[in-house]
Amino acid sequence: MRKSKALLSLPVVSLEEGHRVGFVRHLVINPQTLEIVALVVGERGLFKGQKIVPFSKVATIGDDAITVDRSNNAERPANLPQIVKFIKDGVNLLGTMVVGENGRELGHVVEFMVDPETGKIAALELSGKYIEGLFKGKVEIPVSEVRTIGRDAIIVRRGAETRMTRVEGNWQETLGNLKLTGQGLWHNAVRRVKELPRNARATQNFSAEAKPTDARDVPNPADEQEPVPTPPGAEAAGPVLEDNLKPNEPNPASPPA
């Protein structure tokens, strides 16, 4: 697969004559078949004299150049009215808003992947507030999720946001692995995953299940001791207080000298 932006500005050269036909200035897309049908080529800095190379005439798409068999494979727009119609329709994937069938805006197309052999579009790369709310980076959405490509918006099928693929470096993660049905639960789960490390999440779960007991709720062992039995007659006499004794009166509770 090749990124669309990698094709722009590539020189187009003929294999038969070795001539440079021009540089790729625009990719013409058929919104019904979701494929590149032609390349608009021209010299840099010039808006006149542009020609069209039907994708069927492209021999190879290399890293540094695109080749055609002969120079006359680049034709005048008047000779290709159907392709000119696509150009006038103004369908351009880059920068177009992507909306789900549920009315949620998912983002804008910042790139799309192309099969260099067939010109078929394989995936759209998106960026936007919705995606940034989930994580930093960009996502790819398979072109099979696209329902309609219009001048102002691209409509994707219901639930497509759960089948988008996050692309970061050399690894991919499918957002649908979260297996959350509610959008609110999805946002909450992603936010918690971003804010809490794994160990912290485990600690939080443990704390929720086994909350430490308040110190005031811990029984005092001394309070649980059985009361000391009172000697017979002590309750009637009442406690003997030294403060109630007269001077020089012996304390009856004190043992004799």
Query: How large, in whole angstroms, is the Cα Rg?
Result: 40 Å
Mind summarizing the main beta sheet? 9 strands, mixed
Give the helix level as a range of percent: 10-25%
**Beta-strand segment tally:** 15
Report on the structure:
Among the domains are: 2-89, PRC-barrel domain (SH3 type barrels); 97-187, Roll (SH3 type barrels). It contains six helices and 15 strands. It has helices at 4-7, 81-89, 129-134, 183-195, 198-209, 234-237, and strands at residues 2-3, 11-14, 20-30, 35-42, 51-54, 58-61, 66-68, 97-100, 105-114, 121-127, 138-142, 146-149, 153-156, 165-168, 171-174. Strands 1, 8, 9, 10, 11, 12, 13, 14 and 15 form a nine-stranded mixed sheet that branches. A six-stranded mixed sheet has the order 5-4-3-2-7-6. The chain is elongated.
Keywords for this structure?
nine-stranded mixed sheet; 257 residues; six-stranded mixed sheet; 15 strands; alpha+beta; SH3 type barrels
Short description:
With 257 residues, the protein is α+β, with helices and mostly antiparallel strands. It has helices spanning 4-7, 81-89, 129-134, 183-195, 198-209, 234-237; strands at 2-3, 11-14, 20-30, 35-42, 51-54, 58-61, 66-68, 97-100, 105-114, 121-127, 138-142, 146-149, 153-156, 165-168, 171-174. Among the domains are: 2-89, SH3 type barrels (Roll); 97-187, PRC-barrel domain (SH3 type barrels, Roll).
Layout of SSEs?
Blueprint: E1 2-3, H1 4-7, E2 11-14, E3 20-30, E4 35-42, E5 51-54, E6 58-61, E7 66-68, H2 81-89, E8 97-100, E9 105-114, E10 121-127, H3 129-134, E11 138-142, E12 146-149, E13 153-156, E14 165-168, E15 171-174, H4 183-195, H5 198-209, H6 234-237
Parallel strand pairs: 2-7, 8-13
Antiparallel strand pairs: 1-9, 2-3, 3-4, 4-5, 6-7, 8-9, 9-10, 10-11, 11-14, 12-13, 14-15
